[in-house]
Amino acid sequence: MLKPDADFNEEIRVTEPFLPALAEFLPYLQRIWETKWLTNSGAMSAQLEHALCAYLGVEHLGLLANGTLALMVALKALDLSGEVITTPYTFVATPHALRWAGVQPVFVDIAPRTLTLDPARIEAAITPRTTAIMPVHCYGNRCDVEAIGAIAERHGLKVVYDAAHAFAVCDGAGSLMRHGDLSVLSFHATKVFSTIEGGAIVCRDAAMLQRIKRLRNFGLADEETVTDVGINGKMNEVCAAFGLFQLAHVTEVLAKLRGLYKSYRSALQDVEGIRCLEPYGQEQANHGFFPVLVETTYPLTRDALYAALCDAGVHARRYFFPLVTTFPMYADHTSAARANLPVAHAISEQVLCLPIFAAMTHAQQTQVVEVIRHPWRHRSRQP
Ligand code: T4K
């Protein structure tokens, strides 16, 4: 348990779910009680799928129980096998989903500006066993979708975007969800839009959506027919209702996050050795993360600053450190070697994601900035 510094009386988390008045949620629950329909793609799920299509400007979207299951179902829906090229700079759910699908993740380094898969390095990693590319729009940063799409076309590969961080993110022409064969969202409690646990797959046509819906429901076509080795990946009705309740507030949430992003940037702009990472390729960003790089000109190492913040009751997070490629189930593959991933290693050793969430107060943000500006006052541990 973190012990707040004497000057601070509460822990500031890296994120918190946005929870409007409970009374606003109760009518949704009332409807669920009345219908006695709790799961298996009921009215709340159908309504949320419809509302999300409208909000994101996409035609075909299927809800799932969480983002990890959504990734697994996406891989199954495309019948992927062999090897899939992916990024080391991600949450562990990305390569885990590949392994659950019986696919070998092959890691390719990231580009330093975008922190997403470096397209210039992808082709060298393609082998006769490669079936797809699974990039991540990390922190909502737009992957180089044009270059990745061209490589995929040249080599006959599928593209599945892990878009867990990219809800509501738009480039100049619309939602990032329109890129690739499939895009996968997470609606976990820590995301800017949440269904408590949840996720979704955005796809291109009605036939694929039907396949996804069947795969998330055990592969059942009807009461007597099972066509696929499906799974139970359905979102329940309470989570779907929570999503409808959250969606009504998403504009307000995004505006608050944008305000916090701007004030962090102006408060930190003159701090030597702290580099705020700008959203890349995001005409509309969601600011779900506020990543900074702690450079060598800062008086503390990244880990010492992390510790100083913890001592002051601020739980910033080192997303994504350690890299997934250092975990025992991935470390043995040749593509996981440190020498193959210099950019990802360098970034993961410098990055710190500062607290940012819609209910964050000015006082809380000032606390975070104060520790970064005067770390010696708050450091009680060595790195
Ligand atoms: N792909 C990518 C690129 C992802 O980043 C993720 C998930 C996925 C796929 C998989 O999607 P899901 O299957 O999760 O839908 C968190 C989230 O659990 C995870 O969803 C997220 N990425 C990852 C980046 O972060 P942890 O282990 O850091 O969570 P935890 O429990 O430490 O919570 C983070 C902060 O949020 C803490 O300060 C506490 C606060 N919090 C958390 C919860 C659960 C709350 O205030 N309230 C809460 O209810 O993984």
Keywords:
alpha/beta, 383 residues, 15% strand, 7-stranded mixed beta sheet, Aspartate Aminotransferase, domain 1, 16 strands, single chain, binds ligand T4K, 2 domains
Question: Your description of this structure?
Answer:
With 383 residues, the chain is of the alpha/beta class. It has two domains: 219 residues, Type I PLP-dependent aspartate aminotransferase-like (Major domain) (Aspartate Aminotransferase, domain 2), CATH 3.40.640.10; 128 residues, Aspartate Aminotransferase, domain 1, CATH 3.90.1150. The protein is built from twelve helices and 16 strands. The strands form five sheets. It has a seven-stranded mixed β-sheet with strand order 2-10-9-6-5-3-4, sandwiched between helices. The longest helix is centred in the C-terminal third of the chain and has 19 residues. The protein is globular, with a radius of gyration of 21 Å. The N terminus is likely disordered. The site of ligand T4K has 23 residues, from helix 3 and helix 4.
Brief rundown of the structure:
The protein is of the alpha/beta class. Helices cover 34% and strands 15% of the residues. It has a seven-stranded mixed beta sheet with strand order 2-10-9-6-5-3-4, sandwiched between helices. A three-stranded antiparallel beta sheet has the order 13-14-16, covered by helices on one side.
